[in-house]
Design goal:
InterPro entries: Glyco_trans_1, Glyco_trans_4-like_N. The chain has 15 helices and 16 strands. The chain is α/β, with parallel strands linked by helices and 416 residues long. α12 links the parallel β13 and β14. It is globular. It starts with 10 loop residues before the first strand and ends in a 6-residue tail after the last strand.
Length: 416
């Protein structure tokens, strides 16, 4: 009988042209979890050098000169690198890589499509697509994806609303949420200052204009408080617009803009804040997805002010971790922030409830169990054709069954 430790490891190749190489979901959560479980993991992404970090080998792609260059030349280079890797499983993360996924599938490889958003909805909010063309582009993408998604071995999705599309299409699918890594909460000491924080990409659809307007009302009563906005503006000119608005409202000295920071650093920033704001506006993609920043706030024991969308409400209300507001009304956002400032004991209790909810349910440690188990089912192996370093890393119920099509069902609520 062959020694299981001498058997070759299954090789997993993660693919992205859109995301940074050390993206939270792709690298820190999925790739590192698979590497820890014993898989040979390579990540092909935009980077300036080839290196191995935390057990994941990074194969670099050049920085694109623009969106068209990324979707053509850089994508073609990614495909050639992917073929050279000759992996057992290819796990891609960008909709523009569906063609690459089809080409790899034609080579007999197992292919996973990791869906981060409800893309037909998100296209309707893309500022770089002419508003008159968005509906046509969205419909075209929807038709194209419906035609090709059945060729992939598995679709991973987040939130039930996103997953409903793929369940309707009767394709193999599994839900893996983008919950935070609990161990990061021990990295930085909690030292809250008089700061309100927003984490994430900054765009008009994410309600930042309303947040500035709300903070102007808050600062009128509490001038010693600050608003910290962390992230990259899309488009870049939007940051100038926000700065101009802050200056117009006389609060420019109380508003700080911080550019993109590495994944590990965001916890340091949130640990220094007292209130987290996640008041996206009711655009279709926003209402169908749960922002991971909501859980990042909860991870450090910070109360949240969140949009009154059903998905957000399903987390915030049962967890008792913050306040729900109409994101289109700055005065309502300001009222919620002011309430938390003026009721510190209640705010502290909300933060503690949020942290407890993350530790018990909304954590990546639980999702990594499902990811590993999903790979086991897909490959028909245990631990990627070798022993698992920690058997607990890959336990959890999963089954493939016929329901008009094969559907991978993973108990996403089960935790270690």
């Amino acid at each position: 009988m062959a020694d299981p430790e001498r058997q070759p490891r299954a090789k997993v190749c993660m693919l992205t042209t859109v995301h940074m190489p050390f993206d939270g979901r792709i690298f820190h959560k999925e790739a590192k979890s698979l590497a820890k479980a014993g898989y040979d993991v390579v990540l092909i992404a935009r980077h300036d050098k080839a290196e191995t970090v935390d057990g994941v080998r990074v194969a670099p792609l050049p920085e694109p000169r623009g969106r068209f260059h990324r979707m053509t030349s850089v994508t073609w280079r990614l495909y050639r690198l992917a073929v050279r890797e000759d992996a057992d499983v290819y796990h891609f993360h960008d909709p523009e890589l569906m063609i690459v996924g089809l080409l790899l599938k034609a080579r007999g490889k197992k292919v996973i499509w990791d869906v981060h958003e409800h893309y037909p909805n998100s296209i309707m909010d893309k500022f770089w697509i002419s508003q008159g063309l968005r509906r046509c582009v969205s419909k075209s993408f929807d038709l194209f994806e419906r035609a090709v998604v059945r060729f992939f071995d598995l679709v991973i999705y987040t939130t039930p609303l996103v997953g409903a599309r793929y369940q309707t299409l009767k394709v193999a699918c599994a839900r893996i949420e983008n919950y935070p890594i609990v161990e990061l909460s021990d990295t930085f000491e909690r030292n809250p200052q008089k700061q309100i924080i927003y984490l994430g990409a900054m765009s008009r659809t994410r309600g930042l204009v309303e947040v500035i307007e709300a903070f102007a009302l808050v600062a009128a009563r509490h001038p010693d408080w600050r608003l910290v906005l962390v992230g990259v503006a899309r488009p870049a000119s939007f940051e100038d617009e926000l700065k101009a608005l802050a200056k117009k409202r006389g609060i420019e000295k109380n508003v700080t803009f911080v550019p993109w920071v590495p994944y590990e650093e965001k916890e340091r920033l949130t640990s220094a804040a007292s209130i987290g704001v996640i008041t996206y506006l009711p655009y279709s993609n926003n209402t169908s997805c749960l922002p991971n920043k909501l859980f990042d706030y909860m991870l450090v024991g910070m109360p949240v002010v969140a949009s009154n969308f059903p998905l957000y409400r399903e987390v915030v209300k049962p967890s008792r971790c913050g306040l729900i507001v109409d994101p289109s009304r700055p005065e309502e956002i300001a009222e919620a922030i002011t309430y938390l400032i003026e009721h510190p004991d209640e705010a502290r209790a909300m933060g503690e409830c949020g942290l407890r909810a993350v530790r018990e349910r909304y954590n990546w440690e639980g999702q990594s169990v499902q990811l590993c188990r999903m790979y086991e089912v897909l490959l028909g192996t245990t631990g990627g054709q070798q022993r698992v370093e920690d058997p607990a890393d890959c336990r959890g119920p999963a089954e493939l069954h016929e329901d008009g099509a094969a559907v991978l069902r993973v108990d996403a609520d089960r935790r270690i």
